[in-house]
Amino acid sequence: MIELTVTGGAEIKRTAARMRAEDRNFDKNLVQGIRRAVTPLGSAIKAGVPTYMPSGYAPVLGPALSTTTSVRQVRSPGVSIRVSAQGKVDKRDVRSLNLGILAHKLFGHPPWFRQRIRAGFVSDKFRALRGPIVSEVHRVVARALERIAR
For residues 70, 144, 40 and 68, what is the CA-based torsion angle, rounded to 10 degrees? Predict the structure, then answer.
């Protein structure tokens, strides 16, 4: 006859319950922390618009700018940040503006003219804030792992 005795059943149950609760909260806490880390980027981009855009266009573009953050946790984990701006009819060409090209109609009528402007209104801010954003994301992940370890 073989006898097996397991002790600490109550502690195992408590630990399992905490692990299940943390599993439910892990994704939510991680995504919220990453989004908080990225938030300053949108404000910095908006604040920098007047130094990159012509004086007549900066007040139009600034309020129209928005940033969207997507957090991927499966297959290829990562964070995507999309910067966009809605015009009166269509989306504004943020990519071209970042490259230093402003396309506009002369006095509101065709044809379209291309004007060179200072490039980097998005990418310069991203480069400047990349280090602090990455550091904060690392802190968020470390805190989540600490909660799991407890």
Answer: 10
How far apart are alpha carbons 103 and 105 in whole angstroms? 7
Contact 81, 41 (CB under 8 A): yes
Give the count of beta carbons closer than 10 Å to the beta carbon of residue 71: 17
**What pLDDT does 138 receive?**
86
pLDDT of 96: 96
Tokens 């370890």 correspond to 149
Query: Which residues are registered as beta bridge partners of 60?
Result: none
Residues of the chain predicted below pLDDT 70: 1-9, 19, 22-24, 148, 150
Enumerate the domain spans of the chain.
29-149
Instruction: Please tell me the distance from the alpha carbon of residue 53 to that of residue 63, in angstroms, as a whole number.
Output: 13
In whole angstroms, give the CA distance from residue 100 to residue 54: 11
What is the 3-state secondary structure of 86-102? Answer: ECCCCECCHHHHHHCEE
Whole-structure pTM value: 0.74
| Residue owning tokens 């966009």 | 84
Structure confidence by residue, pLDDT tens digits, 98-113: 999 999 888 777 888 8
